[in-house]
Amino acid sequence: xxxxxxxxxxxxxxxxxxxxxxxxxxxxxxxxxxxxxxxxxxxxxxxxxxxxxxxxxxxxxxxxxxxxxxxxxxxxxxxxxxxxxxxxxxxxxxxxxxxxxxxxxxxxxxxxxxxxxxxxxxxxxxxxxxxxxxxxxxxxxxxxxxxxxxxxxxxxxxxxxxxxxxxxxxxxxxxxxxxxxxxxxxxxxxxxxxxxxxxxxxxxxxxxxxxxxxxxxxxxxxxxxxxxxxxxxxxxxxxxxxxxxxxxxxxxxxxxxxxxxxxxxxxxxxxxxxxxxxxxxx
Length: 282
Prior knowledge:
This protein is an alpha+beta fold.
């Protein structure tokens, strides 16, 4: 088994920018980029550096230096040209701009406690399960319904009240999600976006390092460098008391506290609603 990478300190933007550009270049089908099929045969997948340079309107040497992490900081115009040439989706484009430091950086310390009015809102959302998280997936506040649906968070040490940590490293949670592979893949892609947007957060870097060193599946997915901010979706749960149920979730970001995220669950069908009702009546 190959030893996983370790996140030492905060984001090394130059190295990550280089790696991200390489992986996105190598995954792109030349036909999708409008490269004529008649060009010489390819020994490696994806586009060549000179093709990316041509599509982006920059020099081949510049692309080489970027991919070799040779200390360049591309302008916003160059980042936009590269994003277009590599056919990046919106979340990947935002990630590239974060790595190049062309989006406004987060100011102040990351939220580690729930803003009181938001904590009250979480309670007021009953009987819908709801929680408040920060960008690290730390769970800052929750209502009774959420605890009955997922875990008794009051019984956990504060460092373990983290959605990614629980999914990976809490034994009883490993079988909780029926489609665990998809849930984990989406979570890792979301965490990578947060990592670039909060480049100076050593606690987030420490969380990622722990997951890399303790979970082989996380290390594999992290190495794929997928980026996606997932604000809504559906999960099928294997609840120890209520059985199988399907929930939909929506994530909202308060304007006054953009570092905190309100997550609201609701039943996806009548059977799941009946299961939630049974949990609420306990």
